[in-house]
Write a structure and sequence with these properties.
The structure is a single chain. The protein has 259 residues and is of the alpha/beta class. It has a single domain, classed as Ribonuclease Z/Hydroxyacylglutathione hydrolase-like (Metallo-beta-lactamase, Chain A), CATH 3.60.15.10. Strands 1-2-3-4-5-6 form a 6-stranded mixed sheet. Strands 7-8-9-10-11-12 form a 6-stranded mixed sheet. Bound molecules: zinc ion. Zinc ion (ZN) binds next to loops.
């Protein structure tokens, strides 16, 4: 099994330099699975597709950053991607699913329901145009357990959807087994140091606070992250920050994307 790490939605928030949006591509025999999907090439060509968000996210013109192009860069085709597992449905994580209409799209059932609720927050937070092509949704109810965390959904024997709500109500991390260890993509669950609780630098700490949909759930999520990150067999990577160093257990199988 090989795990690749790609920036699939480079962002340039005001005053914040360039911020990556990291996706994992897990190649395991015939099964190729992505954790998050970034922006499709069409959005880099025409940022008006993401509406008002373009004024905050300020993406560079870089269609080659799209997941489809990243897959091609490692010799894979569109149809090779069998599964996409989404941490949540915000556009820079999920819009890329439009490029993969045949892939199964796994997401927490709560997240999918919330995105369809029609509430004011949902209309502000989610861009439904990227979900209008009839994705092969696989909503997961979360009835399992993983490393003592309840409400999890086992997608395969090696991939688990782990609830880390707060940033959105249905937000999840995605754990990928690698040998004796787990690589946990924590999505937007928090950008600070999960072990010490030290907050992230500007502008991520500010974004973390402003974008919180369910602050009441975030305290539990922070504690869950702290407990998981303290384990020797769990290595974390979050969406918008390159890990200071890639976890030893997965380093030989993980590629940093070209910048
Ligand atoms: Zn988000």
């Amino acid at each position: 099994m090989t795990v690749h790490l790609f920036d699939v939605a480079p962002l340039r928030p005001l005053g914040g330099g360039e911020v990556p949006t990291l996706a994992l591509v897990v190649v395991d025999g015939d099964r190729v699975l992505a954790v998050d999907a970034g922006f499709p090439a069409s959005v880099f060509e025409d940022p008006t597709l993401i509406g008002f968000e373009r004024f905050f996210l300020r993406l560079p013109h870089r269609p080659e950053a799209s997941l489809l192009h990243r897959l091609e860069s490692i010799g894979l085709r569109r149809e090779d991607l069998t599964d996409i597992v989404l941490t949540h449905l915000h556009s820079e994580h999920a819009a890329g699913i439009v490029d993969f209409p045949d892939a199964a799209v796994h997401v927490a059932a709560t997240e999918l329901e919330t995105s369809r609720s029609g509430s004011l927050r949902a209309r502000i937070s989610y861009r439904s145009r990227f979900f209008a092509h009839g994705p092969r949704w696989r909503p997961h109810a979360g009835t399992g357990e993983w490393l003592g965390v309840g409400g999890c959904s086992w997608i395969t024997d090696d991939v688990v959807l782990v609830p880390l709500p707060g940033h959105t109500v249905g937000h999840c991390g995605v754990a990928v087994r690698h040998g004796d260890a787990w690589l946990l993509h924590t999505g937007d669950a928090g950008y600070g140091d999960p072990r010490t609780g030290a907050p992230a630098a500007f502008p991520l700490a500010q974004y973390e606070r402003i974008s919180m949909a369910a602050p009441d759930l975030q305290a539990t999520t922070r504690e869950t992250l702290r407990l998981l990150a303290a384990r020797d067999d769990v290595h974390t990577v979050s969406s918008h920050r390159y890990p200071p160093r890639l976890p030893l257990a997965v380093a030989e199988a993980t590629e940093r994307s070209p910048r």
